[in-house]
Automatic annotation (TrEMBL):
Protein name as it appears in the record: S-(hydroxymethyl)glutathione dehydrogenase
Catalysed reaction equations from the record: a primary alcohol + NAD(+) = an aldehyde + NADH + H(+); S-(hydroxymethyl)glutathione + NAD(+) = S-formylglutathione + NADH + H(+); a secondary alcohol + NAD(+) = a ketone + NADH + H(+); S-(hydroxymethyl)glutathione + NADP(+) = S-formylglutathione + NADPH + H(+)
PANTHER family from the UniProt entry: ALCOHOL DEHYDROGENASE, ALCOHOL DEHYDROGENASE CLASS-3
Organism, scientific name: Acidovorax bellezanensis
SUPFAM superfamilies linked: GroES-like (SSF50129), NAD(P)-binding Rossmann-fold domains (SSF51735)
Sorted UniProt keywords: Metal-binding, NAD, Oxidoreductase, Zinc
Cofactor: Zn(2+)
Annotated EC: 1.1.1.284
């Protein structure tokens, strides 16, 4: 079949809208009509050329929601008409990683996904016979895409696509880092560095579990109003204080119980660790730093009880946890609507990257 898609031909170049050939689903795969997709910082990171694993030409996009149109042989858990969210972190429930119960980093399709291919090592997308690569196993910047069954969360059919697509990355990454990775408890003091599409969801998660002080740190003062709406109790603009770490230690009487780095800046990662409480502070790295970057601190920070952790997709097991998060949204337990600041047509997708870079948008969503 043919599908309309935004194609990334080369790093650093705008996406172009193309009519792409799409092969039907093979064994264990599902054809999905994408109804809406968010534009995440990570799509920009890959498009910019900063991602060493970025491959071209490719169809980017990993924050979508849509409807099953067809299933390949061997698919047993999904059928035509089911509503789904594609998962860049699959959940096979059979690999060593899934069975460990210690991580959400399922490895079942990791090797081929990292090469921009489906599990049989080929691409379903092409233009005039030239293969176009998949991206993160999802390629939601295409109106139709093929995804392995184990990388699709089945969701309720009354959830609006243009809102719940954000659960495919940003919402789950932020909420999950609080709930699944850090397991923040009621009454804890939390510091959140970076109040963008991820950090605001960390704030919403911290409020949800009953955190006491929720301190937001951002160089963009315009993020303050939205962050307060989501539960932030204190705001620090690093440009307005002598020392961010000292400021947080003062507000929290010794340091935050948990901190979250939601920027991808290694200097800030150090601050995020060092502002946590001696003896038990945990700092969770969510931001993706530039290729080759390294983090550092004095080892005594760890000797004296602070812990550094990372979180991918919020530690969520996609097929299990994503449908629950959709329910939370539908039950009014979490706010997604206010974070979606712009709706765009696929033809205007490059504007979504501009809005992100200028700091004007929290999330732009493309509606097909
Ligand atoms: P964003 O651009 O929407 O937000 C980043 C925020 O950080 C902005 O508000 C910006 O003003 C602020 N900021 C920038 N430099 C700062 C500094 N030095 N001090 C304080 N604030 C600063 O980005 P986002 O979509 O929220 O993504 C954040 C990071 O998370 C990115 O690196 C992204 O690639 C990563 N990410 C990680 C995962 C994961 O699973 N670990 C998932 C999605 C995104
Ligand atoms: O299993 O080796 C692996 C990698 C899994 C991918 C996790 C990606 C998390 C961070 C990237 C941001 C995604 C939007
Ligand atoms: Zn697995």
């Amino acid at each position: 079949m043919k599908t309309k898609a935004a194609v990334a031909w080369k790093a650093g170049q705008p996406l172009t809208i193309e009519t792409v050939d799409l092969e039907g689903p093979k064994f264990g795969e599902v054809l999905v009509e994408i109804k809406a997709t968010g534009i995440c910082h990570t799509d920009y990171y890959t498009l910019s050329g900063a991602d060493p694993e970025g491959l071209f030409p490719a169809i980017l996009g990993h924050e979508g929601a849509g409807v099953v149109v067809d299933v390949g042989p061997g698919v047993t858990g999904l059928k035509k008409g089911d509503h789904v969210i594609p998962l860049y972190t699959a959940e096979c429930r059979q690999c060593k990683f899934c069975l460990s119960r210690k991580t959400n980093l399922c490895q079942a399709v990791r090797a081929t996904q990292g090469k921009g291919l489906m599990p049989d090592s080929s691409s379903r997308f092409s233009i005039d016979g030239q293969p176009i690569l998949h991206y993160m196993g999802t390629s939601t910047f295409s109106n139709y895409t093929v995804v392995p069954e184990i990388a699709l969360a089945k969701i309720r059919s009354d959830a609006p696509f243009d809102k719940v697509c954000y659960i495919g990355c940003g919402v789950t990454t932020g909420l999950g880092a609080v709930l699944f990775t850090a397991k923040v408890e009621a009454g804890a003091n939390v510091a959140v560095f970076g109040l963008g599409g991820i950090g605001l969801n960390v704030i919403q998660g911290a409020k949800m579990v009953g955190a006491d002080k929720i301190i937001g740190v951002d160089i963009n003062p315009e993020r303050q109003e939205m962050a307060r709406k989501f539960g932030m109790t204190h705001f620090i603009n690093p440009k307005e204080v002598d020392n961010v770490v000292d400021a947080i230690v003062q507000i929290t009487d010794g340091g935050a119980d948990y901190s979250f780095e939601c920027i991808g800046n290694t200097q800030v990662m150090r601050q995020a660790l060092e502002c946590t409480h001696k003896g038990w502070g945990q700092s969770i790295i969510i931001g993706v730093a530039e290729a080759g970057a390294e983090i550092s601190t004095r080892p005594f920070q760890l000797v004296t009880g602070r812990e550094w952790k990372g979180s991918a997709f919020g530690g969520a097991r996609g097929r299990t946890d994503v449908p629950k998060i959709v329910d939370w949204y539908m039950e009014g337990k979490i706010n997604i609507d206010d974070l979606i600041t712009h709706h765009l047509k696929l033809e205007d997708i490059n504007k979504g990257f501009d809005l992100m870079k200028s700091g004007e948008s929290i999330r732009s969503v493309v509606v097909y």
